[in-house]
Design brief:
The protein has no helices and eleven strands. It has strands at about 1-5, 10, 15-20, 30-35, 45-50, 55-60, 65-70, 75-80, 90-95, 100, 105-110.
Length: about 110
Amino acid sequence: QLEESGGGLVQAGGSLRLSCAASGRTVSGTPMDWFRQAPGKEREFVAGITGYGSRTRYADSVKGRFTISRDNAKNTVYLQMNNLKPEDTAVYYCHRQADDDWGQGTQVTVSS
């Protein structure tokens, strides 16, 4: 099971750090992603990280502002979000590639 946390309401230009904690199974060595879904829009890829964190990739819309990382000892993946914009408002989901497992999501709202 994947559980996201760390969402909330923040003003434009602010920062949040999302966490994705896995229980019942390990995420160590497993590629993980963050996706988001804004109201009325399709779910979109935000960031991905390889199993041991050697490589990351980002959507163009968040490059230079968001950083994905992981702590396999804590079985947790993070998304540091800086310089947030109103268009970043969405529900953010953690995704485990190996079995296409999703968390319930955490709401991020950025006010202008």
